[in-house]
Write a structure and sequence with these properties.
The strands form four sheets. Strands 1-2-3-6-7-8-9-11-12-16-17-18-19-21-22-23 form a 16-stranded antiparallel beta barrel. Strands 15-13-20 form a three-stranded mixed sheet, with no helix packed on it. The chain has a single domain, classed as monomeric porin ompg (Porin). The protein is mostly beta strands. The protein is elongated, with a radius of gyration of 24 Å.
Length: 449
């Protein structure tokens, strides 16, 4: 079961944008015979405090045909486990929550940020892409992608066309991607801003999906459509300097809620969660919680700038990305890599990344009991104010057989903040934002056949 969809969907969107033009154009080569090139990677991502753990295998195969034609096929297999914050606030007393299936409950100790440890899933994603020239100056790139999780299915199509100018020192590109995502959450799709369901003591099956209309009237499936448009410019400034700029537009419409996220309903004076009277037939929840509600459309605009500079074999890669959307989230991403040759067959590549974002207009840590319900509300920390830092180092080398191998180690830290004016009473004395630290370890191996 997966109860944290945004990182996976974000990864798919990033992959789509890469196909549309965020990567540099492929150099023109003269091929004498077809050749397969394989790029493989095994990645481990682990958050502290027994939160999300991910083991991922990635295989990218590329075949070079004559006349500068390329076929690329990718396969990704993920296994995720761990605990994910459910959106509720920590309290001075223990809190009991209903699991998504409605068959069991779980209890969080006092002063701890509530997390749902039922988060586990596996994902299989595939993509295929065909690239070929159209005449002497144009190049066409078309592809398709699909992925499946226990409760989530993605399908997508994309296309990009580019044209060279100025003796192929300038390349303009335009791309389009369409995607349909279908969500079939465990226990069904909850009605927005309604109380968390009770747990039936006679039903202990946690593995059942929606499977139709549930007893409380929830639907079993929802979907969303995503349109991405990208325009790009790549410019060879000099023999040692390459510059790239992309503008992207994204429009997502449909079901954009996270069905596993909730909000605490609190007392307007103390800020403590409102307790519920125990039910003689059903277990939990112990307090009043409501399922979140987000707008059913999100429009994003992004600007990406990148420069690569070769300094006698040492390559400095700098990039900046700005994103703004109609949820009032603004983000900035600064990233730097420096590839430093070590000897004739190896290199070191330090990596630094800084990310910061503002909160969504409907982000709120809690809802006051008795107050009119807002139109939209979410306590998902990923929609709040936070900064994120990544520091890492990659070591790559050429093996005796002539293949490329690498190992990469990175540390990730996310620090968030809830403004004091959004906190009530006793909330001011608690740690309400789930900061995290994570480690990323990746092994890569590239070979040809």
């Amino acid at each position: 079961m997966a109860n944290d969809k945004t990182p996976i969907v974000a990864a798919l969107a990033a992959a789509t944008c890469a196909l549309l033009g965020s990567s540099l154009p492929d150099p023109v080569q003269a091929q004498e015979e077809p050749k397969w090139d394989f790029n493989t990677a095994l990645l481990y991502y682990g958050e502290d405090n027994d939160r999300v753990q991910d083991l991922s295998l990635n295989i990218l195969a590329r075949r070079n045909f004559v006349d500068d034609r390329f076929l690329t096929a990718g396969l990704t297999v993920d296994a995720l486990t761990g605990a994910s914050p459910n959106g509720a606030l920590p309290q001075s007393v223990a809190q009991t929550f209903t699991q998504p299936s409605g068959g069991r409950t779980y209890t969080i100790s006092p002063e701890e940020i509530p997390t749902d440890d039922t988060f586990r899933d596996s994902r299989v994603a595939v993509n295929v892409n065909w690239q070929q020239p159209l005449g002497r100056l144009y190049q066409l790139n078309v592809g398709a992608s699909a992925s499946a999780e226990y409760d989530y299915v993605h399908t997508g199509l994309n296309a990009r066309i580019s044209r060279d100018f100025n003796q192929k020192n300038t390349t303009l590109s335009a791309g389009l991607a369409l995607a349909r995502d279908t969500l079939d959450p465990v226990g069904g799709v909850p009605l927005a801003l309604t109380p968390m369901r009770l747990a039936d003591r006679g039903d202990d099956d946690d593995d059942e999906g929606g499977g139709g209309m549930s007893a409380n009237g929830w639907s079993s499936k929802e979907s969303k459509d995503v349109l991405d448009v990208v325009f790009g410019l790549t410019q060879v400034v000099s023999r040692n300097f390459l510059f790239q700029a992309n503008y992207s537009f994204s429009d997502a419409s449909g079901y954009l809620n996270d069905p596993y996220k909730i909000l605490s309903v609190v007392d307007g004076v103390t800020g403590d969660a409102v307790p519920l009277v125990p039910d003689p037939v059903f277990d939990g929840p112990s307090h009043l919680y409501l399922y979140e509600h987000r707008p059913d459309e999100r429009v994003k605009h992004s600007l990406y700038l990148q420069g690569k500079y070769n300094m006698a074999g040492k390559v400095l890669d700098l990039s900046y990305r700005y994103m703004s959307d109609d949820w009032e989230i603004d983000s900035h991403t600064l990233e730097a890599r420096y590839r430093w040759p070590v000897g004739r067959s190896s290199y070191l590549e330090p990596h630094l990344r800084y990310y910061t974002q503002t909160e969504a207009s409907f982000y709120t840590p809690s809802i006051v009991d008795g107050a009119p319900l807002p139109g939209y509300a979410s306590a998902d920390y990923r929609l709040g104010n936070f900064d994120a830092f990544t520091v890492g180092l990659k070591y790559g080398w050429t093996t005796n057989s002539g293949n490329d191998a690498s190992v990469r180690l990175e540390l990730y830290q996310q620090l968030g903040d809830i403004p004091s004016q959004q906190l009530i009473g006793n909330q001011l004395g608690r740690d309400n934002y789930p900061d995290l630290n994570a480690i990323i370890l990746q092994f890569g191996y590239r070979f040809g056949l």
